[in-house]
Structures are given as structure tokens and as C-alpha cells.
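Q: Got a minute? One more chain.
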Amino acid sequence: MRKAISSATAFAVACLVPCVSVYAVDNTKIGYGQGTATDSRNRPTDAISFNDRYSDYSAFAISPDEKRVIITFDQGYENGYTEKILDTLQEKNVKAVFFLTGDYAKKETALVRRMIDEGHIIGNHGMKHASLPTLSEKQAEEEIMSLHNFVLNNYGYQMQYFRCPCGEYSEKALETIQKCGYKTLFWSFAYVDWKTDSQPDPVASKEKLFKSAHGGEILLLHSVSSTNAEILGDVIDNFRKQGFTV
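A: Always. Here it is, folded:
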């Protein structure tokens, strides 16, 4: 049973056809980051390079839809702010992507059900949040598919987007994710928002997010952040003022 998602919230990358690798695949662990260099359209060049190199594995760090900003949240654990975030998204009529760990999917049933019922996209962030390049292929498949099947069996929702735990990947890991029927989504902008005992200043955070906005952006936020919960509405309003669909 697949929960339907509208064309307004579907990723432009979803239509790309996977390519099957025919050579030995490298399992060297790589830590992803969007870097600081940007092109003339304010798009991080490292995110563009990632797409150029790995799109054959259905892996993307930026969307080709330059009219859109996609907001995503990593849901490692609950810190009391997700309900406020969902309220803001509902108020602003925005659908986001929430990447769940297994622990979150098992413990936060009411919030996950609300995400699904309100039309958000649920993504797979790994059953144990394990770094895939450190696992055997069989273990990596288990890390992905055990959570996939849990969410399918308990929520009636079939996930189709994966985010690599710890932002760590390898060519082999991307191939394994693709074999499991997933597209891999990284991000084209993130900032240090996850340190709950050292939250960034809301005013400075808004300025950072406003200045970094770009077409095709995949924005990574963490729902454990009190700052994100506070500024999200203003961030959405500003993105729209800049001409983006959120």
C-alpha cells in the first residue's frame, strides 16, 4: 500500500531512470558536505558535482527544479519541537520530507501518523542510523529494508527516499540503496542546528538561511532544534518572497 503524494510535492528527480553498474564498485567511505563555493545562481557547486557523479545511482544533493526549495527534517529523536514544526507547515501549506530512524518510527507513533495524514513525505534514515559503508552489503540491506518493512507494516506507508546516516556514503552504498528500490537524497544546504545545548541565534540563523536560498535547494534541518521551530514560518515566508515554491 503506497501513500499517494501529489505532483506538487513530488521530487523532480523521481522521473530519472536508474542505471545499472557493470564494474567493481568502490566502498570507500565519504563524508558529504555541501561546501561553501556557489555558482552564479547561488547553488553550491559541490552539490551540483555530486549530482553529476552519482545521479546514475538515483542519488541527488540538489533538485533540477530551480523554482523550488524542498525542506527536509532528520528525525533522530524527539525533543518536543516537531508538533510546533508540523503546526507551522500546516499553517503555511507546506509539505516537507521527514527522514525517520527506526527508534523514532517505533516510539513516536502519533507524530509519524500526523506527518502521513497531513501529506508529508516520510523518508528512511536507517533502522539503527548506521553508516552504510561500514556494513556488509547484506547488513546494509537489512539496515534499509527492516525500517522500510516496519513503516509499511505499521503505518501502511511505502517509503521511497533514503538519507544516508551521518551523511556517510560510498559508491557501493549508493548502489545498494538503489537496489533496495530507493532514491538517495542528501542536501544542498545545512547548518549547525543539531546541538541542543548550543542552539544558534534565531536572527543570525534566519539571515544565513535567507542568503543561502537557491533554486533546487534541498534544505536539511533537524527537528530537535528550538531555533528551527521558532524561525520556520519566517524562513518559508522569505523563500516565497524570493520567488521560490516551498
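A: Strands lie at 30-31, 59-60, 69-75, 97-100, 121-124, 161-162, 168-169, 183-185, 189-190, 217-222.
Q: Perfect, thanks.
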